[in-house]
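The instructor's notes for this session suggest beginning with a concrete chain rather than abstract definitions. Hand out the sequence below and ask the class to guess, before any prediction is shown, which regions might be ordered.
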Amino acid sequence: MKRLMVTMLMACAAAMAQPECSLQTLRGTYVVSYTGVISTPGGSPYITLFGVVSIDPAASQQVSGGVTVTGLGPTAMFIPTAGTVQINSDCTGVLRLGSPGTAPTEIDQFIYDADSKSLVATAVKIAAGGIASLGRWKKIFPMPYAATWAAPPKQ
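After discussion, reveal the predicted structure:
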C-alpha cells in the first residue's frame, strides 16, 4: 500500500511538471537570431540572421515581421518574413516561413522553453540548398506587433 501511494504521488508530480503548449502560449513579439551555414552550388557561406518577428494565433499568417541576413552577398539583406506555426502540447513544433504572400521557403523545427520564454530552433529545409543553423526566438513582449524591424537605409 505504501509503495502504491509513493508511485501515485510520483506519477502526479511528473504529470504536473509536463508543459502544456498551444498557439496562445507562443503569442507575442520575439527577437530572432540564427547562425549557420548554407550549402549551395556556389559555395557554403556562414550566415547570420537577426530581426523582430511576431506570432499572432488569430492571424492567417501567424508569423510576421522582418529579418536582416548577412553572408549571402557583399551587403546585408532585409527580408520580410511571414508563415505559420504548428505546436504540439509537449512544446515542440514546426515553423513554415517565407516572404509574405508566397509559399514557405524554409522549415524549422523548434522546442519552446516556458521558463525562458524562448523558442530554440533549427532550420531543417530551405529552398536555397542545404542548411545547418541554430536559432533562438526570445519573447520580448507578450503581445504581437509590439516592435518592428525596419529595412536598413539604402546606401
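Then share the key points. Residues 25 and 34 are 22 Å apart (CA to CA). The domain at 21-141 is CATH 2.40.128 (Lipocalin).
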